[in-house]
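Thread: quick sanity check before group meeting

JM: Hey all, I'm pulling together slides for Thursday and realized we never actually wrote out the predicted structure for the chain we discussed last week. Dropping the sequence here so it's in one place. If anyone has concerns about the input, flag it before I start.
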Amino acid sequence: MTKCSILLVLLVLAACNQPATTMESVPAAATFGADLAFLQEHTSLVVLSDAAAQAQVAVSPDMQGRVLTSTAQGSEGTSFGWINRSVIASGKRQEHINVFGGEDRFWLGPEGGQFSIYFQEGDPFDLDHWYVPEAIDWGPWTVVSESSGHVAFEKTMQLQNYSGTDFDLKVDREVHLIDVDTVNAHLGLEVGVGVHVVAFESVNTVTNIGSEAWTAESGLLSIWILGMYNPSPATTVVVPYAAGSMEARGPVVNAAYFGEVPADRLTHDDEVVYFKGDGEYRSKIGFSRARSMPTFGSYDGANRVLTLVQYTMPDHDALYVNSMWELQEDPYAGDVVNSYNDGPPAPGVSPLGPFYELETSSPAMALAPGEAHTHVHRTIHLQGDEAALDRIAVAVLGKSLEAIRSAFAQ
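JM (edit): ok, ran it. Output follows.
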């Protein structure tokens, strides 16, 4: 069974077994204050803040140090992260995966294949045997330092892959609130007046604390950061890609995760791939190292929110883990950048969210004892005047807001 069909079954089961999430239980346009009040009832929080700019970021030590949500305009501002209120409120651990939500969560790859850490050695690649490792799915991470603008966590863990290779590792994770001047430097422009900004980054370091080197022959791990956001019918994911022929760089986009994506949901020109982030149709896309660029994002025209994601750009010859749920011919032919759009897993079945995701992965980590690898994932939300946002979109993504809005025009 392929990864796509297995995940379809998984999500059907999850939607049936987990507490139902409905549009009534999650406000269509939740404010940060409303989400914050809810979260403080159910989990510990560290709230990073910049009082002058009203930027706030809510981070949960109880949920593996994940960023749950953020805002650019204080308590009454838009809450950018998707959170699964019903699952969080239940307080009950789910068997295969705990879908809490959040704008930046730490995972590890690969998900499938002979080097998977989600299946035990010898087990079939099926739903009954798939489990997210506990260390990245359940339970608190230790807070080692915090201030108004940062919080740092650590977690040691022991994992074993499908081939029986053991990994002893330590994860150091820091979440930093980023000020506007630093955002300007990262984007290479002045954001300017009329735009509210909240930006943060997670700095994720994995250290091999075992006695054996991690090798490609016995399996490697990768850092995998996933951000879940509130969808809207007016949201489009925008992914610039590296030009070049199919022969030189391979396919522009990998759209095979959940079967063919209809043309009214996925399209591209010579510079950019457009992908709907409306939470109405399950689909996923990915980009190889040969096609990936250092910045991508989305535009929500309903709420006038331009979201940009940046990450540690790898070397050209880096390997990436393959997460297909099968024994693989090439276990290092994975993607660097991904985007997922949620939707009903089957007719009549509720979606998990709905939400959409922007994701990045580190290269496969071949680490000797004591060696470490760091992957940075940066999220920038800009909200406000469309003329100002348009200028930023053109400069950073290479497309105007009008071009983005019209990508799927009927």
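AS: nice. The longest strand covers residues 195-208. The chain is about 15% helix and 30% strand.
JM: adding both to the slides.
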